[in-house]
Amino acid sequence: MKYSFCFFVIIFSFFGCTKQNQHTDLIATVHQTIKIPLDLDIMPNGTSFQYIDSDSGEYLAFQNKIGPKIEVYNLNTKQHVSRIKLAQDGPNRVGTTNGFRIISQDCLLIASIPPSIKILNFEGIKKKEIPVVDTINHVNFLSSNNEIPFLFSDHELFGAQPFFRNFFETTPDEIATYSHIYKVSLSTEKTDWLPISHPSNAWDEGKKTPNFTWTDRNDSIVISPQTDHRLWIVSKREGKLLGYKEVRSSFVNNFHIIKGFPEGDKGIIEELASDRYELILHDPFRDVFYRFFFKGVDWEDYNLGYRDLYSNRPKIGLLVLNKNLEIIGEQVFDDNYIESWNYFVGRKGLYVSTNNPNRDDFDENVLRYDIIRFEGLEYDD
């Protein structure tokens, strides 16, 4: 299986900071529904999926919580085609796995805790281990999941840890002093932490979660904070922040302000009532971006407990942005229509999982996706 990277040239207007107020309702259609049956020994980790486009077809890889293993399915035939076992002991031990990325026909990268990058072949044999050490922030975290997958440029890997060492003791004056992005040379194994953090005024309205998601387009990394309308644009080549672009959804108006330590389930209920941005995906086939968001709800309006609603937020929407990060339109899906985090981009369109555990037709033995297409975008078929 050969993995194909899709890169595009970025233009200067990408970095404009003009506020956008026009919002157009998107006309979306379901192009196709697919269902992939799973064997009883497969339980997908819903936070870690990877779409692979190759000369031999389209594939979906995901982390199996039973084992653990990486499973690979052919999206066209719906058949299981490969399994990569992850050793829990012995010389090929991977440790606590927190996401992965397949980068070639026989090369798998594992984000492991304690923080290190394990490089394996498809037989599960460990070829190399690169520790990722941060001597300044001391945040013991490494991830390559749907939120912050490993990104690449030539022989360099980019990763992120969005957290602070002690969130509740961090002051607004300190948030801009952290470095949240690291760069690893896969040839020399050298790690550099880039001088990129949250804007100094990010907490002017109160303390908010520092979580962010990201994607890339050619040389640029686009970072989407959960609680800020501004996108950050980072140059891989220069290793620095190039600027911000405000991309505001008309449905995201009420961020969760954290006023103290959690008290029981109060924080869950407050978070449910708040809006926030979620995954951001680049669509290399249409050269657009999808910035997902959660819309706040009153949990008492639903016939479900607030913990169930928090695990699978009922109101999910997205902004579609052009290559310059300008808004094309936005849409909110029907309640509980899609499963949060489980979406990806393919040749046929935007795949969104409709196997939400809060739906009556939920089935743990399948992967089920609707392929969404938007009017105004071009598709091959």
Give structural notes.
It is a single chain. The chain has helices at 266-272, 306-311; strands spanning 28-37, 44-54, 57-64, 69-74, 80-85, 96-104, 107-113, 116-120, 126-131, 151-153, 156-160, 181-185, 191-194, 212-217, 220-225, 230-235, 240-246, 276-283, 288-294, 316-321, 327-332, 343-346, 349-353, 366-374. Helix content is 3%, strand content 41%. It is mostly beta strands and 381 residues long. A hairpin with a 4-residue loop joins β18 and β19. It has a 4-stranded antiparallel beta sheet, with no helix packed on it. Strands 2-3-4-5 form a 4-stranded antiparallel beta sheet, with no helix packed on it. The longest helix is centred in the C-terminal third of the chain and has 7 residues, at 266-272. Mean pLDDT is 91; it is low at 1-22. It contains 2 helices and 24 strands.
